[in-house]
Amino acid sequence: MLTIRSFCNEDPPRLLRLWHSMQRSREEQFSLVPLSFNTLQTQILGLPMLDTRSIMLAFDGVVPVGYIHTTFAPDKDGYSLDYTTGQICFLCVDPDYYDASGVAAELIRAGEDYLIDLGAQQIFGGSPPPSAPFYTGFYGGGAAVGFLCSDRAIINAFSVANYQIYQKTAWFHFDLQALATAITEETIGYYTDLEVEIRETSSAKTWWDGCALSNGIWFDATAYLTQGKRPIARLRMRIAYPDSETLLKMYGGTWLASLMELRVHPDYIGKGIALFLLGELIQYLATQNQHFHIEAHVTEGSPLFELLRNQMWQERDSGCIFVKTL
Questions:
Q1: Cα dist from 232 to 183, 193, 228, whole Å
Q2: CA atoms of 235 and 249, how far apart (whole Å)
Q3: What are the phi and psi torsion angles at 55 (to 5°)?
Q4: Given this model, what pLDDT does residue 84 score?
Q5: Mean pLDDT per 10-residue section of the chain, whose length is 326 residues
Q6: Contact 252/137 with Cβ under 8 angstroms?
Q7: Of 32, 100, 184, 193, which residue is most buried, by most CB within 10 angstroms?
Q8: pLDDT the model gives residue 242
Q9: Rounded to the nearest 10 degrees, how much is the dihedral formed by the CA atoms of 126, 132, 133, 137?
Q10: Please, which residues have CB within 8 angstroms of residue 262's CB and are 6 or more apart in sequence?
Q11: In the prediction, which pLDDT does 298 show?
Q12: How far apart (Å, rounded) are the C-alpha atoms in residues 212 and 190?
């Protein structure tokens, strides 16, 4: 018999076992970072926006078979919660119970009940950027990818629960060992016309950012016109490590960099600026003592999505973020 209850203090080992059961089942895809007790405590259970009632576990008798973690989006200023907008930020089902009678569906229903009781008028399945508070980078990369399309049981559960696709995301991967800088007649002139400034920076502009995105090192790369020092493009990269030891093991002793944001002035879109700036930052990372893998979670159809696909980045998986209006 399936039962569902809210989180108790004795549950962290159960969450870890469920996480690792999903991770082992998806080992070939490298889809989940191996979660440690320390990471669970500091980056999930220890974040100030956590309400322990928002984590619910499902049991078959006394055996834990899945859990769901819900939360609310930040308000427009990033200093409080918007209780009209709920999120199902993670849903985990033991693969041995994927075909059982509705474990994922029952967890979704329980998560919705919690969010609706506190005022939710709209619920996202997954966390649309930039509102992801938990599990950022836990699929690799530096953003929340939603729910992976290869997790068919989870995707189907949202469909059955009358969620619509809000946006699709792509998970790209690039290995610095495959780096080949693209030099064209257009981009070669940028070496004299542009100045590129790369600096380590902070991500925390609001309380929400400080809670959700502080576990990493951030780099900004900005392209300026040599004349007038006017910025025309900016790229942000995050050296993301939910747990450095497990990520190093996962990626064979290398660090993981995450492409987070790319902006280009409208007058310079389509002129190769984005490719040039990305190449400069990758070259900079290549000069560091560590070897890096680079990943990106981007919205399908966005300019960054088209750029990475054209540059032959490996598309490792894709994800869906769902929405349901109540």
A1: 19, 12, 11
A2: 28
A3: -105, 125
A4: 96
A5: 94 92 64 74 87 96 94 89 94 81 90 97 88 74 77 88 92 68 61 84 77 76 86 84 50 65 86 82 73 78 80 82 94
A6: no
A7: 32
A8: 46
A9: 90
A10: 233, 234, 235, 236, 274, 277, 278, 303, 304, 307
A11: 84
A12: 36
Amino acid letter, residue 8: C
Q: What are phi and psi of 270, to 5 degrees?
A: 85, 10
Task: For residue 130, say if its preceding peptide bond is cis, omega within 30 degrees of 0.
Answer: yes
Scanning the chain, the segments in alpha helix (DSSP H) are 12-25, 37-40, 103-117, 152-160, 185-188, 190-193, 207-212, 244-250, 273-286, 303-310
The structure tokens listed for 210 are 């400080």
Q: What is the DSSP letter of 230?
A: -
Count the neighbouring beta carbons within 10 Å of the beta carbon of residue 275.
18
φ, ψ for residue 284, nearest 5 deg: -65, -45
Q: How far apart are CA 205 and CA 117, in angstroms?
A: 31
Tokens of 319: 């994800």
Helix (H, G, I), strand (E, B) or coil at 232: strand
Cα separation, 89 vs 263, whole angstroms: 27
Question: What are the distances in angstroms from CA 189 to CA 81, 211, 217, 266, 307?
Answer: 47, 42, 31, 19, 20
3-state helix vs strand vs coil in the chain, percent to 5: 30, 35, 35
Give the position of tokens 């790209």: 172
Domains of the chain as residue ranges with CATH: 2-170 (3.40.630.30), 174-316 (3.40.630.30)
Residue 120's identity, in one-letter code, is: A
Judge whether 149 and 111 are in contact, CB under 8 Å. no
Token representation of residue 125 = 């399945």
Closest C-alpha among 25, 82, 20 to residue 49 = 82
The pLDDT score that the predictor gives to residue 177 is 59
Q: In the structure encoding, which two tokens stand for residue 109, read together? A: 């229903």
